[in-house]
Specification:
The structure holds 2 protein chains of 2 kinds. Chain A is of the alpha/beta class. Chain A is about 50% helix and about 15% strand. Chain A has 20 helices and 15 strands. Chain A has helices at about 5-30, 45-55, 70-85, 95-110, 125-130, 135-145, 150-155, 175-180, 190-205, 225-235, 250-265, 280-285, 300-305, 345-355, 360-370, 380-385, 390-395, 405, 410-425, 430-445, and strands at about 60-65, 85-90, 115-120, 155, 160, 165-170, 170-175, 215, 240-245, 245, 290-295, 315, 330-340, 370, 400. In chain A, the strands form 4 sheets. In chain A, strands 1, 2, 3, 6, 13, 14 and 15 form a 7-stranded mixed sheet that branches. In chain A, helix 3 links the parallel strand 1 (about 60-65) and strand 2. The chains are: A alpha/beta, B mainly alpha. At the A-B interface, helix 1, helix 4 and helix 19 of A face helix 5, helix 7 and helix 13 of B.
C-alpha cells in the first residue's frame, strides 16, 4: 500500500466515524430543543448591586438534562451572566438521577470545588446535608413563598440546605381522540381498567400502525422505576417499601400489582419498555405510538409543542389505582443547593436566589411545564392557561414518598435494591420469588 | 528486565570484573525511571485497592474508616449478584473472543491477498473500530429497539422476522445482542493484529510449498498457522483481557439491570452508586485475580508453544 493512500483512507475513516458520532449526538439532543420559547427570561432583581460585589466571578452549575430543562438553564444563566457579570458555566447532569447522585457524591467526598451550584433530588437533602451551605441566613426570607412541606424536607438539622426549585409528580397522560374512537368516555381509574383499555386500543391501532402500544412508563432499572413502582404498590394498598421503620414490601397486594404489570410487559406495553427512561417514554407518546403514558409534568409542554403528533389530542388524569387503594403520585422535584467546597459561595447563592424566585418559576412553568414550588403561581391566570395539570383534580392527588428519610445516606443503595428487584419481576420472575429477598435487603439497610 | 539481570548471575559472581559491576550499576540506574513510573501508575493503585479492601471505607461517611480484616471477602463469597456477574462476563468473553477470532482471521486472510482496492478495503474495515464504543452502543441500542429500531423494521419487511423483537430488553436475547455489537466493533481490531502477523510470513515459503505441490489448505495448516501462532496468542490475550473488563456496551445497553451486570459494572455500581469503597475494592481485587488466572493460562500456553518450535 502506498503511504499516501493509507493516510487518505485513514482520513476518510476518521471522518466517517466523526460524522456518525455527531449525528448520534444531535439525534439525542434535537428532542429537547423544542421547548425554547418566545417567553423571555425574567430580569435579575438588584443586578447592579450583585455586579458590584461579585461581578467577574465564575461559577459552575450542574443542572437539568431532561426534556427542555437544559435549554431553560442556558437561557436563565445567560440572562443572569449578562446582568450580574457572574459567569455561569452550565453543565447538564446525567439524565438518570441515581447516576447524577453518584456524580455529586464523588465530588463531595473529594471536597471538590468544581461544582458550585447543583440541582438535587427531593430525596437527597438528608444524604448531602453535611456538604451543603446553610442558605437560611441569605435566602430564609425567600423560602417563605415556597410550599412549606418542601422547605421542611430541604431543612436538615435546622439548616436550609437547599431551595425548592420545581416540583414533580407522576400522572397519567392519555389520548383523548383514541379513547373516543374506542368508545371510552373517561380515562381508567384502576390498573386493570388501564390494561384492558390499552389492549383494546392497541389491538385496533396495530392494524395501521405496527409500532403502536397501549401503555408506556419508565421500566428501565434505574431511579425512575423506583418512583413508578411505588405508585403501583402504594395505590394498591401495598405500602411504601418501608413503613414505620420496617421493610414491608413482601406483601400480597404488592405482589399482585407487580405480577399484573409483569404479565402486561410485551402484551399491552412494548417489550422494550423495560429499557425505557423518561426520554424513550415521551418519545413513544409524542410520536403517537402509545395510548397511555405515565410521566412527570415536564412532558406536557413537549407533547403540546410544534412537531408533536399528539398536540391537542391528549389530556392528563390521576394515575389509576389497585383494588385495595386509591390513586397516588410519587413525589419528585428538584432543589438547588450550594456546595460547601465552592470557592464563590456568595455569587452562587445570588444565582440560587434568582433561579428560585417567583418570576423564574413562572417562566419555567410556562415554557417547560414544570410544577412550581410556589403555591400562589398555580392561581396565576397565565400559568393556569398552559398548565391544566395544576388543576386540583390532578395536582391534589395524595403523594407517595420514597423511603429517603428513613434510609438517609443509604437511600441510593436501597433504591437500587428496589429497582433491580422490580426489574427482575418485569423481566419475568414472579413477584413471590423476588419480594422476600428485597424485603430482607431493605431490612438489612435499616439495621446498618 | 530479564536480559539486563543476566550479568549478575551467581555462578559468575566470583569472576565478575570491575567493568561488569559498573555496567550492572549503570543498568539499574537507567532502569530506575521506568521502575518508578510502573510503581506510581500500577503498583501504588493496586496496593491501595488491596489495602482499601480490608477497610469499611464509604463515600459520604462521617465516621472514620475502620480496618475490618477479611469481612468484605467473606461477604463477597455469599454475594450471588457478584457470582452472577462473573458468570455473565465469562460467557460474554468466551462467545465474543471465539467469534472475533474466527471472523478476524478470515478477514485478515482476505485483505492479505492481492486484489484491486485492497488499500481501501483495509481502511474501510476499521470503521466500526474507529467509532467510540459508547456512541456505537447507543446507535445499536436504537437500531435494535422493538418499536422504532431499523433492524426489526428491515427484518419484518424482508420476512426474516415474524414480528418486532425486543433484542435488548428480552433476557433470552440480551446477551446475544450485546455480544453481536462487540463482535461487530472489535473484529476489525483482531483482523488488524492478525494481518500484521500475516505480513511478516515470507512469501518464498509459499512458493516452495507450491513447487512441492501443496494445496491451499495444506499451505494454511503447515505454513500460515504455525508461523501465525505468536500473533494469534497476542491477539487472544489482548481480546480476552479486554472482554473480561467490559463495561461500556453493557452500561449503555442495560444500565444497572441486575441480570446483565458484568464484573466491572458490579464494581462500579458498588463503589460509585452505593458508595461502598471498601467492599468495592474487595470486588476489584477479586476481578484482578480472575483476570490474572487468564493471564497465567495464556502465558503458560505461550511458553509451551515457544518450546515446541
Amino acid at each position: 500500500m502506498r503511504p499516501r493512500s493509507l493516510v487518505f483512507w485513514a482520513g476518510v475513516v476518521s471522518l466517517l466515524a466523526l460524522l456518525v458520532s455527531l449525528s448520534i449526538a444531535t439525534a439525542a439532543t434535537n428532542r429537547s430543543s423544542r421547548a425554547t420559547a418566545s417567553y423571555p427570561a425574567p430580569p435579575v432583581p438588584g443586578a447592579a448591586a450583585i455586579k458590584a460585589k461579585y461581578g467577574g466571578q465564575s461559577i459552575t452549575f450542574v443542572g437539568d438534562s431532561v426534556g427542555g430543562g437544559h435549554q431553560r438553564d442556558l437561557a436563565l444563566a445567560k440572562k443572569f451572566s449578562q446582568q450580574t457579570g457572574i459567569k455561569v458555566n452550565v453543565v447538564p447532569h446525567p439524565a438518570a438521577s441515581d447516576a447524577s447522585y453518584s456524580q455529586l457524591a464523588r465530588a463531595f467526598s473529594t471536597h471538590s470545588s468544581s461544582i458550585d451550584v447543583a440541582m438535587i433530588d427531593v430525596v437527597w437533602p438528608g444524604a448531602f446535608a453535611p456538604f451543603l451551605v446553610d442558605l437560611k441566613p441569605k435566602l430564609g426570607a425567600q423560602s417563605k413563598i415556597h410550599a412549606p412541606g418542601i422547605v421542611a424536607s430541604d431543612t436538615v438539622g435546622g439548616k436550609l440546605v437547599a431551595m425548592p426549585w420545581f416540583g414533580d409528580f407522576g400522572m397519567l397522560y392519555y389520548r383523548t381522540d383514541l379513547l373516543k374512537k374506542y368508545g371510552y368516555s373517561a380515562p381508567p381509574t384502576t390498573w386493570t381498567q388501564l390494561f384492558a383499555m390499552a389492549k383494546k386500543i392497541q389491538d385496533g391501532e396495530k392494524a395501521t400502525s405496527p409500532n403502536f402500544s397501549g401503555f408506556v412508563f419508565q421500566g428501565n432499572a434505574y431511579e425512575g422505576l423506583t418512583c413508578d413502582s411505588l405508585e403501583w404498590i402504594a395505590s394498591s394498598g401495598g405500602g411504601h417499601f418501608i413503613d414505620n421503620g420496617k421493610a414491608t414490601i413482601n406483601n400480597a397486594r404488592a405482589a399482585a400489582v407487580l405480577d399484573l404489570f409483569r404479565k402486561n410487559i410485551g402484551v399491552t406495553t412494548p417489550r422494550g419498555v423495560t429499557t425505557y427512561q423518561e426520554g424513550e417514554t415521551h418519545t413513544a407518546f409524542i410520536d403517537g405510538d402509545a395510548a397511555f403514558m405515565r410521566n412527570w409534568p415536564y412532558a406536557y409542554s413537549l407533547a403540546q409543542a410544534a412537531g408533536s403528533k399528539v398536540a391537542g389530542k391528549f389530556a392528563v388524569a390521576p394515575l389509576p389505582h389497585g383494588s385495595g387503594g386509591g390513586s397516588v403520585a410519587t413525589v419528585g422535584g428538584w432543589q438547588l443547593a450550594v456546595s460547601k467546597y465552592s470557592k464563590h459561595p456568595d455569587a452562587s447563592i445570588e444565582f440560587v436566589r434568582y433561579m428560585t424566585s417567583k418570576p423564574v418559576e413562572k417562566f419555567d412553568t410556562i415554557t417547560n411545564s414544570n410544577v412550581p414550588t410556589i403555591p400562589s403561581l398555580a392561581r396565576d391566570p397565565a400559568v393556569k392557561k398552559v398548565a391544566p395539570y395544576l388543576t386540583p383534580a390532578t395536582a391534589n392527588v395524595p403523594r407517595a414518598t420514597r423511603p429517603s428519610t428513613v434510609l438517609g445516606s443509604k437511600y441510593n443503595e436501597g433504591s437500587k435494591d428496589i429497582y433491580q428487584a422490580i426489574s427482575r419481576i418485569l423481566n419475568g420472575s414472579p413477584a413471590s420469588s423476588v419480594l422476600p429477598g428485597l424485603q430482607s435487603q431493605l431490612q438489612g439497610l435499616l439495621k446498618k | 528486565m530479564a536480559s539486563v539481570a543476566t550479568p549478575a548471575q551467581p555462578r559468575r559472581r566470583s569472576r565478575r570484573t570491575k567493568l561488569a559491576r559498573r555496567q550492572t550499576r549503570l543498568a539499574w540506574l537507567l532502569l530506575v525511571p521506568s521502575l518508578a513510573v510502573v510503581a506510581l501508575v500500577a503498583l501504588y493503585p493496586l496496593g491501595k485497592t488491596v489495602f482499601q479492601s480490608f477497610t469499611d471505607q464509604e463515600f459520604l461517611a462521617l465516621e472514620p474508616t475502620k480496618w475490618v480484616g477479611f469481612d468484605n471477602y467473606t461477604q463477597l463469597f455469599h454475594d450471588s449478584l457478584f457470582r452472577h456477574s462473573i458468570w455473565t462476563t465469562i460467557k460474554f468473553s468466551a462467545i465474543t473472543v471465539a467469534f472475533e477470532f474466527a471472523l478476524g482471521l478470515a478477514i485478515a486472510l482476505v485483505v492479505n491477498s492481492n486484489f484491486k482496492g485492497r488499500g481501501m478495503m483495509r481502511a474501510v474495515m476499521l470503521v466500526p473500530w474507529a467509532i467510540p464504543t459508547v456512541v456505537a452502543a447507543q446507535m445499536w441500542k436504537w437500531m435494535l429497539d422493538d418499536t422504532f429500531g431499523v433492524i426489526n423494521d428491515l427484518g419484518v419487511r424482508l420476512h426474516v422476522l415474524s414480528h418486532s423483537h425486543a433484542w435488548i430488553a428480552d433476557p433470552s436475547t440480551s446477551l446475544a445482542a450485546v455480544c453481536a455489537v462487540d463482535i461487530w466493533k472489535t473484529t476489525p481490531f483482531v483482523a488488524l493484529l492478525l494481518l500484521a502477523g500475516l505480513q511478516v510470513i515470507p512469501q518464498d515459503l509459499y512458493e516452495a510449498a507450491r513447487v512441492d505441490g501443496a494445496n491451499v489448505l495444506q499451505q494454511f495448516w503447515k505454513i500460515t498457522f504455525p508461523l501465525l501462532k505468536p500473533a494469534i496468542l497476542v491477539t487472544l490475550i489482548f481480546r480476552t483481557l479486554d472482554a473480561l473488563r467490559v463495561f461500556d456496551v453493557f452500561y449503555v445497553f442495560f444500565g444497572n439491570r441486575p441480570d446483565t451486570q458484568t464484573m466491572a459494572i458490579y464494581a462500579q455500581s458498588t463503589i460509585v452508586g452505593d458508595g461502598h469503597v471498601g467492599y468495592g475494592a474487595a470486588v476489584s481485587v477479586v476481578i484482578f485475580l480472575i483476570i490474572a488466572i487468564f493471564v497465567v493460562i495464556y502465558m503458560t500456553l505461550n511458553r509451551l508453544s515457544g518450546e515446541e518450535t
